[in-house]
Design goal:
single chain; about 130 residues; alpha+beta; 6-stranded mixed sheet; 4 helices; globular
Length: about 130
Amino acid sequence: MNRFVEFINTADEKLAQELIGLDAKFYVPGRPEPVQGPAGYLAIIGMMRSGFPDIQWTLEETIVEDDKVAARFMMRGTHDGSFFGIPPTGKSIAVQAMNFYRLSDGKFMEEYGMPDRMGLMQQIGGMPV
């Protein structure tokens, strides 16, 4: 998980190839179909970085059972780009995310990500508190 956190915080393409399975599927809230493989995961990171160029994830807690990992993250960043139609506000965010992963042969093969989207939108003024 430490190398995975390094990957999501740097968007390093070499780490993506090393850690993400080619057939991996990542289920993103609000998208009807999962994104796939290293390129798909890099696209998720790119989408977040477009709104929060300095975004960083801190791994707060993990629970591991067999080939599955439950991970609780804190995402922090500054809203310096447009995000879901909300123009940049310069506001800082601190948002929790709970993600569930399945690994195979040391590679991430599946993720169900559940960020606190409502909390994020409230923090950048996209919906009332």
